[in-house]
């Protein structure tokens, strides 16, 4: 069973802006992501169809969850869901009485289990980064050690004299380039255009497969979220508060996103934060696990409240 935004919106009890906007890390090019929690009417709940849980839309980018699905994700300490209850109030788009009650009881969901979920997400980001860097290095190595240069020289010798290939290379974004030295005094623009076009086409033909294996150009964004997650988890375990807006470390996080740190330096910092996270789990005063029975009563209260 699926619904349209127009069908879900009237039954939404809580809707907020999430992602970079709620973190305070948005740029002029950042998307505006939203998440919402829905309680469908009884006649739509009591059917033989498979229970509706989640639906995602684009333009606008909004993700709807049933109340049961959302609360189960809160219980599991899912970072991208748990933060819904802790976004700054100015990020709240819609909040009914039921949504207000849910947010009021948000502390119920916080526990030491957050160590495993937040650390897990952070480690996933770290794995993506290291895997991406390995693929980048491997691709660059293959590009510079194969016989691409010979192919380019053959192409060049068939079209012009006085041109020599000095170097071929890949930029950090995986774009192929070639350095030429010219010892001829006369060449028309049309001839020059023909030569450069032929070389460019040949370069692309020889690097398409490698480029397809290149990691996303967002490794620095993964790194920013790695550190954001680690900072949030440590704060949560040490203070009992989940701080979504990252004003306190915004400058540092954006510097990571902008590529202002060497990877080796970031890996050292990440390792230190992982160690601190482990220590924070040991000393945290948070409850070991969320009180399931109390949360079940809250769910029943919200579902039966008009």
From TrEMBL:
InterPro entries according to UniProt: RlaP
Name of this chain's protein: Nucleotidyltransferase domain-containing protein
Domain of life of the source: Bacteria
Pfam families assigned: RlaP
Alphabetical list of PANTHER family matching this protein: NUCLEOTIDYLTRANSFERASE
